[in-house]
Give the backbone structure.
Amino acid sequence: MGDGGILIKAVRGIDEAGPGDITFVANPQYEKKLNETGASAVLVTRGTERPGENVTLIQVDDPYVSLGKLLTIFYPEKREKPGISAQAVVEDGAEISPSATVYPGVYISSGAGIGAGVVLYPGVFIGRDAVIGENSILYPNVCVYRRCLIGKRVILHAGAVVGSDGFGFANPGRDNIKIPQIGIVQIDDDVEIGANTTIDRATLGRTWIQRGVKIDNLVQIAHNVVIGEKSIIVSQVGISGSTRLGRSVILGGQAGLVGHLQIGDFAMVGAQSGVHEDVPANSVVSGSPCQPHRNWLRSMSCLPRLPDMRHLLNDLRKRIETLEKLSEMKKEVEKEKESSREKEETQ
């Protein structure tokens, strides 16, 4: 809607955009800014009305998705130059594709396999017999322990640790006998893992991050956890051992899950929730301990009123005590009257 001949030179936020810029409105609450923005064009949802002649609207199914496509066009990532730096350490027996990029300070252990188009930034450590799939990117100081499997097009952000020992100890708090963690971590294709996130190797078998999962920064995933396809794990989540998440699960920030749980497909867990029991598919839970989200909202709506409710209860308690005293006094008076009548009748 508007002038289809406008030349767009850049993508900017709606507050900063000016002539020659394109911006977006994905949330209806920001539609009021259509009257204020200086952008030449705005990505909006279908059916959005044009506020005036000064702005051109481009109606799409999902403005945020369209924004992502535009950003890749306007600001493409620079392709890394293939090659192995002379300052990298590569042990005998490691296999590295000629099209991979290995920066200074990378350490690749024997038996490791580095696929085509892989980029390993400075400080990356690849353990024995680990495999990094095609076109994956490992940012500085990522550690991939022995035998772990990383799929294709995986992004591991700085400081991520894949395959550290699971927290397994017998007689905890007394003998703390370490149980060897001999399993692996398997990360499937198209997964992205945030900075300083840790994924522990399995005691036996595998800790498994399935295709398309996106994990934020500072997340802890314990041994033998399974995270289903396309799930979203937000920052500072902690998932205890052997818990299994279904497909497209969303865990809000700082949620904590105890071990050996089943979280159903498309379930959602609110931020800072404490999950102590299985969560059914397609459900939404919040709170600590968690409960159905609507129940939690009702509970939270009472909190601001608790001081007034306490004052009211104290007032009612005092009134009840006063009424009880009056009732007792009335009973005593009636008892005295009855006693007087009995004496009169006797005389």
Observations:
- The chain has three domains: 10-74, 83-297, 315-346.
